[in-house]
């Protein structure tokens, strides 16, 4: 695609005030780079040329507005996603290892989580070719995908190990796990996916694409947990308890355990627990009625970000150019 550069010093006297401003603090100038292509290809081109689009000392410059802001959002989210995975991955293995008492058992939920996130992001990227998908969808996929995958896998792996401890063979233990914990995971996944699909009704916002990303992540997590994970557990068999951790928590089922006592109290007084819980949850959701949604802008970037600093300067020096205009497109054909 063609790239057009409009230098501030080449602008005529009539239009000079639109790109050059002088005050007691110094002189500010706008040099505009235009990509003659669609927005998606322009961001791809910006990714290739980002490091070459700069200005050397003694001047101070900021790459900002339009494509630069979009590129900054994409770049920051990609880096944050990698950072989150590097932190959450080892931490999840450590916590699950302490809970399960086995590194092999701990790796299974993490593996399901990684597979879920990769598959969901891949499907979302494909979906972005046919509809608009906000860059925040990857964050939702990572957050929900890892959380739900580990949650669902915990049920299956824990039940599978319990069945093995009861003396059942691997085949029976796998079948029992799928018939009990697997069924719970299936209905839970369907329920969560339907709930997230409610975000599709918030048109003219980024919420529909967030709902799509979340729904895809939950659905894939459910498929991995109910189909792929049981097959892996059946292949491992008793090796699921391999690589024991000596300082692990005792998770064996007991009738006098903490969770057993809590469950008994809830079943003995269901209404006493249900009513206060509903009041608390409904009260927590009341502020949603007063929510105001808007499109993301450069103001969502960190205060020290280059693109935000540049937009703040434009907003201060040229307030009429800081995205305060409305385009009216008229089709005169026919």
What would your notes on this structure say?
60% of the residues lie in helices and 5% in strands. The chain has 10 helices and 4 strands. The chain has helices at residues 16-19, 39-49, 67-100, 103-127, 137-165, 170-197, 207-236, 258-268, 270-285, 306-317; strands spanning 3-6, 20-23, 26-29, 32-35. The chain has a two-stranded antiparallel sheet. A two-stranded antiparallel sheet has the order 2-3. The two termini are 31 Å apart. The mean pLDDT is 81.
Shape: elongated
Query: How confident is the prediction overall: mean pLDDT?
Result: 81
SSE order, one letter for each helix or strand: EHEEEHHHHHHHHH
Largest sheet: 2 strands, antiparallel
Radius of gyration computed on alpha carbons: 27 Å
Helix content: 55-70%
Question: Approximately what portion of the residues adopt beta-strand conformation?
Answer: under 5%
Question: What strand line-up does the widest sheet have?
Answer: 1-4
For the termini, the CA-CA separation is 31 Å
Poorly predicted sequence stretches spanning 5 or more consecutive residues: none
**The CATH homologous superfamily of the domain at 101-253:** Multidrug efflux transporter AcrB transmembrane domain
- Which class do the helix and strand fractions yield? mainly alpha
Oligomer: single chain
Number of helices: 10
Give the number of DSSP strands. Answer: 4
């Amino acid at each position: 695609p063609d790239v057009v550069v409009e230098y501030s010093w080449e602008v005529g006297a009539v239009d000079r005030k639109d790109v050059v401003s002088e005050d007691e603090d110094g002189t500010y100038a706008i040099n505009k780079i235009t990509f003659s292509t669609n927005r998606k290809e322009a961001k791809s081109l910006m990714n290739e040329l980002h490091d070459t689009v700069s200005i050397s000392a003694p001047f101070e410059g900021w790459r900002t507005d339009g494509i630069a802001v979009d590129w900054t959002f994409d770049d920051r989210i990609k880096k944050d996603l990698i950072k989150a995975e590097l932190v959450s991955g080892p931490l999840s293995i450590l916590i699950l290892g302490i809970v399960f008492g086995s590194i092999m058992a701990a790796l299974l939920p993490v593996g399901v989580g990684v597979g879920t996130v990769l598959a969901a992001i891949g499907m979302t990227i494909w979906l972005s070719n046919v509809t608009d998908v906000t860059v925040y969808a990857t964050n939702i996929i990572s957050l929900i995908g890892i959380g739900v995958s580990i949650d669902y896998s915990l049920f299956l792996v824990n039940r599978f190990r319990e069945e093995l401890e009861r003396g059942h063979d691997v085949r029976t233990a796998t079948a029992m796990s799928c018939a009990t914990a697997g069924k719970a995971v299936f209905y839970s996944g369907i329920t969560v996916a339907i709930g997230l699909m409610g975000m599709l009704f918030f048109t003219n916002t980024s919420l529909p694409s967030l709902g799509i990303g979340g729904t895809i992540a939950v659905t894939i997590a459910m498929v991995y947990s109910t189909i792929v994970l049981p097959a892996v557990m059946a292949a491992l068999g008793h090796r699921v308890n391999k690589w024991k951790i000596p300082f692990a928590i005792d998770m064996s089922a007991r009738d006098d355990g903490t969770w057993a006592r809590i469950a008994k109290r809830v079943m003995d007084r269901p209404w006493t627990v249900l009513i206060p819980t509903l009041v608390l949850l409904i009260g927590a959701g009341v502020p949603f009625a007063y929510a105001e949604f808007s499109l993301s802008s450069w103001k969502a970037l960190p205060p020290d970000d280059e693109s935000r600093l540049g937009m703040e300067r434009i907003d201060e020096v040229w307030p009429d150019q800081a995205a305060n205009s409305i385009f009216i497109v008229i089709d005169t054909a026919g």
